[in-house]
Input
Amino acid sequence: MRREMVVGILGGMGSEATVDLFAKIVRATPVSKDQDHLRIIIDNNPRIPDRQQAILEGGPSPAPMLIETAKNLVAAGADFIVVPCNTAHYWIEDIRGAVTIPVVNMIEETAKEISRSYPTVKSVGIMAASGILKAGLYQKQLSGMGIKAISPRDDDQARLMDAIYSVKAGDLSAPSVTAIEVGQKLVKAGADAIIAGCTEVPLILKTADLPIPVIDATLVLAKRAVEIAQASQL
Output
């Protein structure tokens, strides 16, 4: 009997997003009893420096603490690592270079999901934190697939960032209004689908809120984690 791989979650960016990924992995796992669930090790490290400040303002790099936390997961017995923070993927190669186990790329997996499940989509709105938009991580992935990326206008992006930080502070109600309004504007700008490309966004924006698909990057990552763990290989 093959041993299922142990999932390591490098969390804390933010904590609500980490809980969301954990819950989605649990729900995505086909089970009939407790023992059917995956073993999941979580290091919820909220002391990791702010990723937005690092990219946009030259603030402290989160790389050293991302690496330290990843190594904690390796030492605890994780077989592979998932990171419920899109912007942290700016440093994914630093993490990969420091550990001996695979680190799954959420952004690549989300782009693959669009290609697989939404092959007719030509334009995608990106609802993400400002740092990841500046880094162009989703834009590069989509461009390579021949898909146009549409970002919110500057004023809408500022509102979205306020909503994201409100979620990080524990407010899951009022920010949803902002998220829906920003999403509606991306639809008017020509988006065929929306990527919820910040792990706080799926907490305040659902597919039912808009007339086009909302691709939840956290859910994509959760399903991929289950697939990897149960296949016992990447």
Observations:
- Strands lie at 7-11, 40-44, 80-82, 123-127, 148-150, 193-196, 214-216.
